[in-house]
Amino acid sequence: MTRLSFDARELRDLALAWLALGVAFTFFHERVTITTIGAVVASRGFLLALAVSLLTAGVGFLLHELAHKVVAVHYDQVAAFRADYGLLALAVLGGLAGFLFAAPGAVVHRGRLTPRQSGLIALAGPVTNLALAAVFALAAFGSGLGWRGVTINLLLAGFNMLPVGPLDGNTVREWNTYVYLAVAVPSVLLAAAALYV
């Protein structure tokens, strides 16, 4: 059976993806622009805002990817997270431009898989975000950090369950339409609600 392990490259990729996404979400949330970046980064509130982003968006992305890896390793896959540095740079620049496109990289794995195993590996990420949203919801009353964690994790789950391209939802739908609908419908509805609440 394959063991869960991390090499130096994977640990570096995870750390840099976590940090880059934290910065991107901070720039976006604080409405930082090219012209205001110096003043904002030098301000006292920047580090607090960055910490909030790292604990909400950063943790949501990190645990999403690690969930894929854990399930892949369970199915005897050789699996590792690989950051996409071009997309991470785009995320940071997007945060400065006032939009977010966050695709930090992906867990790559090799080995033989059944459609069910592929579907379960894909499902692990969005289900982890739903679980994190529930955890953040427990802390949400009276807490901006909690509400941010709920919102971001619901958006991550809903987006990733869309049945298009390389997104998790497409893999799950190809395996089992009923499982896909059971997870995707509430995920997308909750994500839509999170945008408006």
Descriptive account of the structure:
The chain is mostly helical and 197 residues long. The chain folds into 2 domains: 1-111, no CATH class; 113-197, no CATH class. The chain has helices at 8-29, 37-42, 44-74, 85-97, 115-138, 144-160, 168-175, 177-196; strands spanning 78-83, 105-110. The protein has a two-stranded antiparallel sheet. Helix 1 crosses helix 3 (44-74). The radius of gyration is 17 Å and the shape is globular. The mean pLDDT is 93. InterPro entries: Metallopeptidase_M50B (IPR052348).
Estimate nothing, just give the exact number of structural domains. 2
Strand portion, in percent? 5-15%
Mean pLDDT: 93
Main structural class: mainly alpha
**Rounded radius of gyration (Å):** 17 Å
Separation of termini? 45 Å
Shape: globular
Q: Please list the strands of the largest sheet in the order they lie side by side.
A: 1-2
SSE pattern:
HHHEHEHHHH
Please outline the major beta sheet: 2 strands, antiparallel
Give short descriptive properties of this protein.
197 residues, mainly alpha, 2 domains, 72% helix
Short summary of the structure?
It contains 8 helices and 2 strands.
Question: Secondary-structure map with pairings?
Answer:
Blueprint: H1 8-29, H2 37-42, H3 44-74, E1 78-83, H4 85-97, E2 105-110, H5 115-138, H6 144-160, H7 168-175, H8 177-196
Antiparallel strand pairs: 1-2
Helix pairs in contact: 1-3, 1-4, 3-5, 3-6, 5-6, 5-7, 6-8, 7-8
